[in-house]
Amino acid sequence: MTNTDATKYYVFYDGECGFCNFWVHWILKRDDKDLFLFAALQGEFGQKFLSERNLELTDLDTLYLWKPDEYYLRKSHAVFKISEVLGGIYQFISVLRFLPTGITDFLYDRVAENRKKLATQACEIPTPEERKKFIG
């Protein structure tokens, strides 16, 4: 993918999910170091990310965290890395990455299956400064 910033972490999420949008805004409010950018999986940038990695284009239940030229993580391991990068009290969540992936992704999948029941479709409107962190 061209025009990416290798110093940033890209969070790919279901842009039509109120629960997912809540967590995107949660990260935004705690991103004091300006390290995260966001893209909906349904958008052009999100679809290109999935396509280039031969990932399922219609699987919107998975959160991805991408560090250009280094790696991408999915599901629970994306959550653990986000908490680590945010630092402070949030980095303690990343300790759970030492649990077996089968367990942590099982729990992630249960939340993902029920995410539309967990939040309304009401979305917080990003500030003009926050809008600059969204791609597409």
Radius of gyration: 14 Å
Strand order of the largest sheet: 4-3-1-2-5
Order of helices and strands: EHEHEEHHHE
Helical coverage, percent range: 40-55%
Number of helices: 5
Biggest sheet details: 5 strands, mixed
How much strand content do the residues show? 5-15%
Helix-strand category: alpha/beta
Tally of strands: 5
Distance linking N and C termini: 14 Å
GO molecular function, one term: protein-disulfide reductase activity
In summary, what is this structure?
This protein is of the alpha/beta class. It has 5 helices and 5 strands, in the order E-H-E-H-E-E-H-H-H-E.
Describe this protein's structure.
The mean pLDDT is 90. The longest helix is centred in the last third of the chain and has 18 residues, at 101-118. This protein has one domain. With 136 residues, the protein is an alpha/beta fold. A hairpin with a 3-residue loop joins strand 3 (64-67) and strand 4. Helix content is 41%, strand content 15%. The protein has a five-stranded mixed sheet with strand order 4-3-1-2-5, sandwiched between helices.
